[in-house]
Each structure stands twice: as C-alpha cells, then as structure tokens.
Design brief:
By secondary structure, the protein is an alpha/beta fold. It is built from 20 helices and 22 strands. The longest helix has 17 residues.
Length: 577
C-alpha cells in the first residue's frame, strides 16, 4: 500500500527497531549490523500495518497517535499455541494459589485451607502444588487434619496439582464423589489407595473425572470475570493470540475441569459482547486425559461439538474452533507415558515402559484405536492435535498421521513431542506434520530420563532446521504463561541439565528463531500466516513493544527482566504500561 492510497495513519510507532520477521530464516542471529538494518517506524491504519520505516513517519497526520519508542523494540504479538485460557483464568483468579513459589512444605497446608477460602459453593479449591517439592503426595488425611486445625472440618476440598493430570481430595469430597475401596480404577486413570485398600485422596488422569463430576462448576458471571482478568494478564505479557487446547465433554479429566462445553459457550458470549480482545483458536475435547476412544470422538463430532459457533455472530479471526485435542499418553510422574525402554520404575514390572492412555486391552489395541481417532477427526475436516510425550508414543503418532493424512492442509500436529526419536523431525517435515514444545516444563520431565536420552529431548533446533516450524508454548496454568523464560531455555538448553550444558547438546536455537516460532511459526500452525504472525505491510497490527533491544544469544538471560510497554491487537491498544 503506497502513501497515495493512505493519507494518514491511525497510529505510528517510531524511534526503535521493528522486528518485522518477514525475512527471517532459521539460524538468523541478532547482531549490530542486523539491528541497524531494521525499520525504525511502523504505521497502522484500520487495524492493518500500512508502512514501515521512513514511509511510516510520512503518514503522521493531525489525528495520528504517535508512540515514541525511545529505543524500545516492536515485535509481532506473541501467539501461545498451547495455553489453557479457561484453566489459567479460573485457577489464577478464583482458586487458592498453591504454587511452588509459596507452598514448599506440607506443614504449610493449614495456612492455605482457612475459613475465608471457602467459596460460594461451600468448597475450597486450590491449584499448583508439586509433590516433588513437598516430598510426597497430599492425602485426604493431610487435608482433613488441616481443616480440623482451622475449625472447619467437614468442608469439601479439592486441590489440583501443577500438572493438570492429578488432584488430591479430602474424605468429605471423596464421599460426595462416591469413591470407596470398592470403586475400580477407570480406564486410563488411577485411584491411589492406603494400606487397607481405601482411597487415600490422590487421583490421576481419568480418575480425576470422578471427583470433578461432583465439584460445582464456576458460575458463568464469575467465569466471564476470570476471562477478563486472565486476558489482561496475557496482554501485559505481549500475548495477542493463543490456542485453547481442550474445551468440551472431556473437561472432567483435564486440569481443574473448568474447560467445559459451557466454557466454550461463555467464550462466545465474551466475544459477542465485544470483551474478547485475544485471538483464540479452540481445540474441542471429546475425551479427557485418559480413555480416549474413537466412538466418543465420533459421537460428539456428529452431535455438533465442533460446529458450536456456526450460529453465533463471531469473527473467526477472533474466535474459532480449529480442531480436536487428543491425549495419546499422559505424564511421566504418573507412569502413563509410553517409551521404548523402561523409564517408570514405580510401575508394575510389565508396565515399566508405560503405555498410552487410549482405550484398549493391549498396546496394539490402543494403537489401532488411536488410528481410528485420527481418521475420524481428519475425515471431519478438523485439525488433530495429539498430546504425545514418550518416544514410543511420539513415533506412533507421527507414523500414523504420516500414513493417514500426509501433508494435510489441516496441518495436524503433536503437542509436547517431548522425546522425539532420532530423525523423527525428518518424518515430520516430509509429511507436513507440526510439533509444539514446552521448554519451561521440560525440567520436570527429564528427571525420568538417562543422559543419552536427554540429548534428544525437545530437539527444537533439529526440528526447525529439518523444515518444520515447531511451536514454543507454555501449557499454562501448568506453568506460568510468561514466554520469556521459555526463550531463554530454548536458546541455552539450561533447563534440561543439572549444571553445565554438555558440549554435545546441539539443540539450542537463536533468540530470533525463538521469537519467530512464538509468532510467525504459530500463525503457520493456525493457517493464519497470510494475515498475522509478522509485521509486514498488509498484516494485521498485532504487536508488542518490548523494553530495550531484542537480546543476542549471549545476552538472552536479560530478556526475563524486559517488561512489555504496549500491546496492540488489530491496531487497538489492549495493554499500556
């Protein structure tokens, strides 16, 4: 668009480098010469970028808002491709916070379970604890004793751990859920038991659905308020778009259970009211973290789960249902990831390699069930995004998608892709399959692996240079949604090693690579690269202003302390500091 087409701009940002990323290539690095060649101004009109560099400043008119950057850096808006917006908003703004920064000793438990923490439904709900920090799992007896100490015995309590795959409940909550010694473990889940065979209060994967089924849902108005607050948090981090990975009937076996069909509708209510300023792509969730099966997927899709927004007055660039989330395996700490060699020492001898959490009596049955799920989702014209962590799961998922839907225009992809087997990135690239990684979470996974396997855990560099555009994502609220530590870890690989990173670890990427994967790469996965993801002329003005310069690889650690000055979506300011 030329200056003759646009007389003035609505907004011009000037006086600092604009990292438009339109010419980025894998391996590009920040140097003084590279920074000197960046445009130092950007013009916005009607929500789109209309000029860069000197031409942008020529569009300043009497009504133009001018933002003087003072050397700060304009970057494309961050797109977190795996952020549980509902779970993050609810657990952050309505539940008792029990994160590892404040809850480090079980003796502290009574301080979290006080009378004032009882919500309007009569329950106490907490989130964020980690058994590895506390030294063991929280039991029903622990919670009951804490309530007794505070004079509120009889209050039902549910405490969701950091992972979203486990919870602890007290005796009253177990009674309300009907969980007794006679209750069998559901397929894909475990009810932990005491010495007498009764439930000890700790539930994992599919078993958490038994408890979530009786926990009162968060009221709609409270949910909408949590969305508004959560959205403000994310915009303050420069996040302009996200994938909400899992809303639907499977919500009872995921995170805190707040990602229900009702939440799917509440997001649409928020958008129709004009209060949704985040771009949200939703993956619907027919099954939760255990018991995935093709029959349920088919049933819910045929009933219109993925067409729920068809009759709503929504801009699909603001809110859309993109695909289906599938759990192929679980988490290492629960012994439910599937590996080629034994990893899970606490599992029964015959299950030390773990297993998938898909329905089936044998590994072969589970693989065939997964194949049918992928066929079903692909045939419905929906993107399939599959949670896969163990190397055997990862290989199975990649090979199955490659056989059923190679180079699909739907751009199917793997979530986590943690233990990507050697040269698996070549199969990804050859078949147009995407992959997401979660650097901040990796330190919790690699403790289960020997050094030779840590070397190929999260091989972002190999995957990127093979021709894939892998995502760097948070998985909030499993970890905070701040993307800056993820960039540091993706560049340094310091998160997967205790002590110095060995010289043979070659999977670190550059800071520019990391920024591209958080922006333009995410847009490619969303099939949105023609209109967002970079700051090229013609793209939508989704951007953030980062204090200071974008760091070089050697200076990447400084990124953690760099605040976001300004965030815009569609040319509208959604955060200003």
């Amino acid at each position: 668009m030329s200056t003759s087409d646009v007389l003035t701009a609505d907004t011009v940002l000037r006086g600092g480098p604009v990292l438009d990323l339109s010419d980025w290539k894998p391996g590009d690095e920040v140097t003084d010469d590279w920074l000197a060649g960046r445009p130092r101004a950007l013009a916005v009109r009607d929500g789109a970028i209309v000029a860069l560099g000197p031409e942008a400043e020529q569009l300043i008119g009497p009504e133009t808002r001018v933002v003087d950057l003072d050397g700060d850096t304009v970057i494309p808006g961050i797109n977190d491709g795996h952020l549980h917006f509902t779970g993050y908003s609810v657990t952050t703004h309505t539940y008792v916070k029990m994160g590892t920064d404040i809850f480090t000793d079980l003796a502290q438990l009574p301080s979290f379970l006080t009378k004032d923490r009882i919500d309007a439904s009569g329950w106490i709900r907490g989130h964020g604890w980690d058994e590895l920090v506390l030294g063991r799992k929280i039991t029903a007896r622990d919670i009951d004793d804490a309530l007794d100490a505070n004079g509120i015995a009889g209050t039902p309590v549910v405490l969701f751990d950091w992972s979203g795959h486990s919870l602890s409940a007290n005796s009253v909550a177990l009674e309300r859920a009907g969980i007794t010694a006679a209750t069998p473990d559901p397929a894909g889940g475990v009810i932990y038991r005491d010495a007498d065979g009764g439930p000890d209060g700790f539930l994992t994967d599919a078993a958490i659905s038994l408890m979530i089924a009786v926990v009162p849902p968060v009221p709609t108005e409270q949910l909408l308020d949590a969305y508004r607050k959560g959205q403000a948090d994310l915009h303050a981090l420069g996040i302009t778009a996200l994938t909400e990975p899992g809303l639907g009937p499977g919500h009872r076996a995921l995170l805190d259970g707040s990602g229900s069909v009702e939440a799917l509708d509440a997001l649409a209510d928020l958008a129709e009211a004009g209060d949704l300023t985040m771009r949200v792509s939703v993956l619907v969730l027919p099954n939760g973290t255990g018991g995935a099966n093709a029959a349920d997927v088919r049933k819910h899709l045929e009933a219109g789960l993925a067409r729920r927004y068809d009759d709503r007055d929504l801009d699909p660039r603001q809110l859309t249902i993109a695909g289906v989330k599938v759990f192929a395996d679980g988490t290492p700490q629960n012994g439910t990831t599937w590996h080629k060699q034994p990893v899970h020492e606490d599992n029964p001898p015959e299950h030390r390699c773990g297993h998938m959490v898909v329905v089936g009596d044998s590994d072969l049955d589970k693989v065939e069930e997964l194949r049918e799920i992928i066929r079903t989702v692909d045939a419905a014209g929906l993107q399939v995004a599959i949670h896969a962590i163990g190397d055997q799961t990862v290989e199975t998922v990649i090979d199955t998608i490659a056989e059923i839907a190679p180079n699909s225009p739907l751009r199917h992809y793997l979530i986590h892709t943690t233990e990507l087997y050697p040269h698996g990135w070549e199969t990804l690239a050859a078949n147009g399959i995407g992959a997401c990684f979660n650097p901040v979470i990796m330190s919790t996974f690699v403790r289960f692996l020997p050094a030779e396997r840590i070397l190929r855990t999260e091989p972002i560099r190999s995957t990127l240079h093979a021709g894939v555009r892998p995502g760097i994502t948070s998985d909030a609220p499993v970890v905070p949604p701040d993307w800056r530590p993820a960039v540091v870890y993706a560049v340094t690989r310091a998160h997967v090693w205790e002590g110095e990173v060995p010289a043979e670890d070659a999977e670190g990427i550059t800071t520019l690579d990391a920024l591209a994967l958080l922006t333009s790469g995410a847009a490619v996965r969303d099939r949105a690269e023609t209109w967002r993801g970079t700051l090229a002329v013609g793209q939508r003005a989704d951007l953030a202003v980062l204090h200071g310069s974008w760091p070089s690889d050697d200076d990447v650690a400084s990124l953690v302390d760099r605040p976001i000055r300004l965030t815009m979506v569609d040319g509208t300011v959604v955060h200003s500091a």
